[in-house]
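Hello K.,

You asked for the raw outputs rather than the summary table, so here they are, unedited. I folded two proteins back to back in the same session to keep the settings identical. This is the first:
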Amino acid sequence: FFRNETKKFDVVFHLASKMADSNNLNDLNLLQINPTMAKHVAIAIKENKIKYLINLSSSSVYPNTDGTFDEQQPTDSSQNSDCIYGLSKFNSEVLFNYFLKNTDTTINHLRCSMIYGEGMNEAHLFPVLEKELRENDTVTLFGNGERNLNIIHVDRLINYLNLFLEYPQQGIINVSDECITLYQLGCRIVGSGNEQKIILKPQGNKNKFVLDIKKLRNILATQPGHD
């Protein structure tokens, strides 16, 4: 897919991925599809001597448990409902490193938090809650709304991708914009003063997972015009 005699590519953004949803959480095809894509992209990068790869990975490579997780923490997606997806993203990182070793390609893995924004999948959390509010004038939050959400708006992610394009980085970087509770998200969706529309259910995930983004913030602090 890089075969174009009139153009030379310097950078590859690998954003493509088979996503996890309620229908395929335990489907081992995820473990095959995403690493296979990574292998083919890596081979094409090597053949075309491309200098820089930005690979969009996932915070799902870490265990979704209480604690703060920086880039040095061990990966273990076995604690997560999307375990197989998280493992597929970690394996993709490993395969990029393997197939591009002993090359001049700079590899940047962005372990990204939950992405939200216009056009997102209707089965994801944000649109599900917004739909419930439109239809029932309520928002139901499980785990009493205590679960942490590490989130980033798609526009902010694009800004970061542009930054890394301008200032290439090597290695793993956790990428998020903020960490809020599910209850705080519910309050945003219903609007200030409408908290009575929130229904809390005790059953469900209450984990306090925090994605550590100090490395990202240190990078931003060294680049003028970015925060």
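The second followed immediately with the same parameters:
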Amino acid sequence: MRIAPGNGGERRQLHPLGPSGKRTDLVGLLSGIRIIEVGGIGPGPFASMMLADHGADVISIQRRGGYFVPQDASSRSRRSIVLDFKRPGGVEAMRALCRTADGLIEGFRPGVMERLGLGPEVLLADNPRLVYGRMTGWGQFGPLANSAGHDINYIAITGVLHAVGRRGEPPVPPVNFVGDFGGGGMLLAFGMAAALLGVRMGKPGQVVDAAMTDGSALLAAMCYWGLAAGTYHDERGTNWCDGGSHYYDTYECADGGYISIASWEPQFYALLREKLGIAGDPEFDAQQEEARWPDLKLKLAAIFRQRTREEWCGLLEGSDVCFAPVLSMSEAPFHPHNIARQTFVAVDGVIQPAPAPRFSATPAPGPRAAPQIGADGEQILREAGFSAERIAALRDSGALA
């Protein structure tokens, strides 16, 4: 394996199907589904992105003077309108849009949408088939529901943050992958898809309460199962899968790069020993003796520091050792496996993760770049039945920007 980001020309060659790396004539599995997104940052837009990636018509309601970042992948593949709910006609316009929609996504603290006159009681009365998605950290109820917080706080109270890090060292924030996106945005996307399917099956529209506390706890189901079974220690860095073992960890190479191994199963562990030339070392026979793990880890660390990352890739990559180089975000899009699968795509020259998962009969269309804020306002309102005069009145009042 050889990784080299190269120049912009080389980047474009990675994606032969067009500027997005995907066919743009496809419509996607969720074509015909309309989602109204109350603009925000983080997990809510991420959930909307996942739906938009697969063909949903996502209409983003932005605030006047909203924050626009054209490189933001979570804002891709939707349309944009600016509505001010505090100006005459703004709330009525929002209600009209929601009458034409299948779903709504909002990420305010509990009670904010109700105070605006846009709570679920109002919007579900207008449109009983509406799926009302609510994205919060603490959830819609509970003693912390109205408190401020961020990803690290939400995963702290579910035991997840406690589990991440080295033994005897402080917990390590796993960026905001677990709370905001895995336990937040992705959970909401699943909830929206499930409730939308329910509506198609004759069930009523409803509220989806997606809390990052709930989602991060759910992601830790395996660890909680192991804790109950006595096979998982409630101390970070002491388990086979959290860096405690010698056979499931990352190691530094001679050039300062890192590699990862996960030789858990006996046959994979045996192959690792064979590849590293330690098959005859009796100390490594004690694979599952936890007391031996620290010493065995030191021995493996000394071995891996003898060669560069590239050299270890040449020896181990593609084998059943369960091995991969630890790539930076600048390197990852150019790994041969990621190129072959088009795991990353170029959208207006910006490399970003491609839509996932993959569907055999209805592949995702090529992502579109994030729209300019408010670029589609008049067209969106016309589709909702607004006359030219009514649109002009909304502009005059400041409700439409």
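The first strand starts at residue 34 and ends at 38.

Happy to rerun anything if the numbers look odd on your end.

Regards,
P.
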